[in-house]
Amino acid sequence: MKVIQMEDVTKDYGNGKGIFNISLDIEEGEMFGYVGTNGAGKTTTLRSILGFIKPENGKVRVNGIDPWDNGEKLMREIGYIPGEIAFPDLRSGEEVLRSQAEFLGIKDLSRANDLIERLQLDIRGNPRRFSKGMKQKMAIVMALMHDPKILLFDEPTTGLDPLMRDSFMQIVKEEHGKGKTIIMSSHMFDELEEYSDRVGLIVNGKIIDIADLDEIRNTSFRIYKVEFKKEEGFKKFLCNSKANIIREQTQYNQVTVRIDMNDLSSFMKEVGTYDIRYIREVKYNLESYFEEHLGLFEEKAGNGNVDKQIII
User: Fold this and answer.
1) What is the CATH number for 275?
2) Are 212 and 243 contained in the same domain?
3) Based on the structure, what is the number of domains in the chain?
4) Interatomic CA distance for residues 208 and 201, integer angstroms
5) pTM of the model
6) Are 142 and 80 in the same domain?
């Protein structure tokens, strides 16, 4: 079942800012990661799904309904952590949470209290004076306290220290395990790679590619870096080997090769005939995948205007 559907959605802010012809289907129970640099269009995508902004073109549906016309109803079914956090003008975090509970129709605050304890959040102070990390924790509690089935997180670990980040990501893992549908945007590959089913890369307002994490984890090839002791052996390998050489580092007498699993044994025998300093496997991960596909996109586009900051 498709919980979230976007079809050719465009919101143009001018000067190349916004999202352009975004099409995306999110299945029930899926965790979808969304990666891109600041200003790439992640937040605009999420706000379109929430019904906070109305696209100029295209259609958005959440559980089959238009979020622009049914925003208040959907907000009771969605947990949202915004990228820019603002709280109502109330005296304490406790008052803010009680106000949120009243809006959502929640009488049992045990879920909120459990999250407060796990995140070590002190709700006695004025939330407008909270530190960045404390505001982020508060937003997490507000997003999850009504146990929604759909979760939208916009850079949710920003401001959290490493221990709290781990605690939050454990909560995300648990929510995913319950069958929740999750979209989480980030500029960090590692936190998306570990927990997501798929990850989309957005560049300049357009989704360039969507990676299937199962395919990345179970590739039919391996990547190795080989360093030769002498330049002579390095050059001989370049001339004679049938291996797929994807990178040469002449100054170090190094090559990086991609080897099909069926050819792995013969490759190792070949390398064994050379005088090498070392050979090691290079992990193929989400960042490697997008670096490769972003390069293909640049080549297809025929220009150098793609922001590569995301893969550095």
Assistant:
1) 3.30.70.80
2) no
3) 2
4) 6
5) 0.86
6) yes
Domain boundary among 216, 236, 258: 216
The reply to whether 303 falls in a domain is no
Rounded to an integer, what distance in angstroms lies between the CA atom of residue 22 and that of residue 60? 10
Instruction: Give the residue from 46, 27, 32, 34 showing the smallest Cα distance to 195.
Output: 32
Tell the burial category of 217 from Cβ atoms under 10 Å away from its Cβ (0-12, 13-18, 19+): exposed
Residue 224 and residue 256 in contact, taking contact as beta carbons nearer than 8 Å: yes
152 strand-pairing partners: 80, 183
Q: Is residue 187 part of a domain?
A: yes
306 in a structural domain: no
Inter-CA distances, 78 with 42, 99, 130, 136, Å: 17, 17, 25, 17
The pLDDT profile of the chain, 312 residues, written as one tens digit per residue, is 899 999 999 999 999 999 999 999 999 999 999 998 888 999 999 999 999 999 999 999 999 999 999 878 888 899 999 998 989 889 999 999 999 999 888 999 999 999 999 999 999 999 889 999 999 999 999 999 999 999 999 999 988 899 999 999 999 999 999 999 999 998 888 889 989 999 999 999 999 999 999 999 999 999 999 999 999 999 999 999 999 999 999 999 999 999 999 999 999 999 999 999 999 999 999 998 988 877 644 444 444 444 444 432
Q: Which two tokens stand for residue 39?
A: 């200003």
The values of phi and psi at residue 253, to 5°, are 55, 45
State the CB neighbour count (10 A cutoff) for residue 218: 8
User: Helix axis angle, 132-144 relative to 110-118, nearest 10°?
Assistant: 150
- What contacts 186, CB < 8 A, 6 or more positions away? 33, 34, 35, 155, 156, 157, 192
Q: Which residues contact 185 (CB under 8 A, 6 or more apart)?
A: 33, 34, 35, 36, 42, 43, 45, 46, 83, 153, 154, 155
CB neighbourhood size of 265 (10 A): 10
Q: What CA–CA distance (Å, rounded) separates 218 from 201? A: 20
Residue 141 in 3-state DSSP? Answer: helix
